[in-house]
Amino acid sequence: MENFKEKLAEHRKSIDRLDAILIYTLGERFKQTEDIGKLKAKAKLPSSDHNRELFQIEKLRKLSENANLDADFAEKLLNLIISEVVKNHEKIKLG
């Protein structure tokens, strides 16, 4: 039983570390997209780039398959991120 508890604790510690990496990575991603939003607002470009989004989704689906991650799940996650980015770009555009 002790071995089980140790292994469980190790896995949970690894998950906690990975969660932190995910959050900091998302934070950095949103910082980059904020900068893009400012550039788009200055150039009076639309907040959304449908072709870029489709390209990114297709690329992410391929990466997901290589990472042994459900591609549908990855696409849902990216769509959620894209939707937040577009909302942020709209806020930036409004000033």
Can you give the helix content as a percent range? over 70%
Structural class: mainly alpha
Largest sheet: none
Strand content: under 5%
The CATH H-level superfamily is Chorismate mutase
Annotated CATH architecture: Up-down Bundle
Give, in order, the helices and strands: HHH
Question: How big is the Rg?
Answer: 18 Å
Low-confidence stretches: none
Give a count of the beta strands, DSSP E runs of length 2 or more. Answer: 0
Number of domains: 1
How many helices in DSSP terms?
3
Query: What's the overall geometry?
Result: elongated
The span between the termini is 58 Å
Which CATH class is shown?
Mainly Alpha
Q: Could you name the CATH topology?
A: Chorismate Mutase Domain, subunit A
What is the typical, i.e. mean, pLDDT? 96
Task: Explain what you see.
The structure is a single chain. The protein is mostly helical and 95 residues long. The protein contains 3 helices and no strands. Helix 1 (2-42) packs across helix 3 and helix 2 (50-66) packs antiparallel against helix 3.
At a glance:
This protein is mostly helical. Helices cover 86% and strands 0% of the residues.
